[in-house]
Structures are given as structure tokens and as C-alpha cells.
């Protein structure tokens, strides 16, 4: 089955290649400035002729560089939150395996049915994330370290969700960390990036074995994302991230509404 998908990927037209590469450039730009690039890459992969489950699996490959680069950039901050790092990496691996297995086992039809709800959840998480984080920091001045078992349980659930779909999981982690720890935003970014990188790599292996990744389109978009992220990092401070984030949010709302209209 894997050969069929590889051969099909090689039949891309020039316009599709340009679209995927340009989408990757935009994704790299978005990830550096505001996050949420999956909202752009997922529909572009669908536009390249993939089924929904193929676009979802291939999206894991396309956005992988963002987390890898983030892990490198925040590597010094990671040392400051290494106390439970081993456990969190285990939860990321286990959650990624379970979520990806559920996706492969339930298949295309089930995934189509839940796409609108997944997009709604991701959009709400992305849109309300800053407000939730601010309220949590203001109203929940309790010792979250006494409830770490609950934090780990919630984190595992998010990793399972991430192994299945993944959009919006980053902002959910920020909210969890804000409740149960005293991490700075940079420390939270370090922890989020390294664990999501591991989860993503494991999911990619499972999806590849199932033959649902379209490699050529994914790698074209990945190349664009790497280049876009590199050059955006050099000019990031010149562009107001809030403008980019608001644009992504509008797009995510439209995409969610379209998904409900199309699949329900």
C-alpha cells in the first residue's frame, strides 16, 4: 500500500507543488509569529487531492520542523523544568501511540464524522487560549504542585488527542501548565515543544506503517515550512503577532463552519 501512495504523490502537477510549497512558507511564518499553522496546512493538503485521513497524517510530517526548531531554541529553558521530564516524555509517547492507533483503527469514515467537532475544539482552544490563560493566572493562585497527578492525567488525554488530530493542543498545554505549575512562558514552550516532537515522530511512524502518509506532498510542504520559519525568525519582531493570530482565528472559524456544512 505504501508504494501506491508514493507513486500517487509523484503525479503532482506544478500548480500543486507551488501551492504546497507556498503553504509551507506561510506555515513557517505563522508558527514563528503566533502558532496555529495546522489550520493552514490541513486544508491545503486536502486541496492537493488527499482524503481527510491522509491529509491529517501528512500534516504531522509537514509541521514537524516547527516543534523540532522550537525544541532547539528553548533547549536552555528545558533544563529548568526537567524534574518530571522523563514521565512527561513517557506520557507523550504513550498518548501518541494510543491516539494514532485509534485513528488508523477507526479509519476514514469515522474521522470524517468527527472532523467538525475536532476543528471546533481546536478553534475554541486557539481563540480562547490567551483569555483562559490570563484568567487562570489571576484567579487560581493555589499550589498546583499538590495536584500533579491531575496535571499528568490531563496531559496524557491531550497527547491522545494530539496523536489522533493535534490542532490546538499547544494552547491547551499552556493552560494546564499555568494551573499546575509556576513555569514561565518560555519554560512552558520548551516542555511543549520537546514532548510534542516525540509524540509527532511516533505518530508519523504509525501512520507510515499504515500507508496513510502522502510523502512527496508532505515533504514539499515541510521544506517550505523550514525555509519560512528560518527567514521569519530573522524579521519576527517587525510584524505584530496579534495581527497574524487574529487572521488565523478568522480562517479557523471559517474552516470549522465549512466542515460542519460539508460533513453534517
Distance between the amino and carboxyl termini: 30 Å
Q: Which class best fits the helix and strand makeup?
A: mainly alpha
Strand tally is: 0
Strand content is: under 5%
Q: If helices are DSSP runs of H or I spanning 4 or more residues, what is the number of helices?
A: 12
Mean pLDDT: 82
Major β-sheet profile:
none
Shape: globular
Uncertain segments are 1-10
Percentage of residues in helical conformation: over 70%
Count up the domains. 1
Radius of gyration: 18 Å
Secondary-structure element order, as H and E?
HHHHHHHHHHHH
Polypeptide structure, described:
- The protein has 264 residues and is mainly alpha-helical.
- The chain has one domain.
- The chain is 82% helix and 0% strand.
- It is built from 12 helices and no strands.
- The longest helix has 55 residues.
- The two termini are 30 Å apart.
- The N terminus is likely disordered.
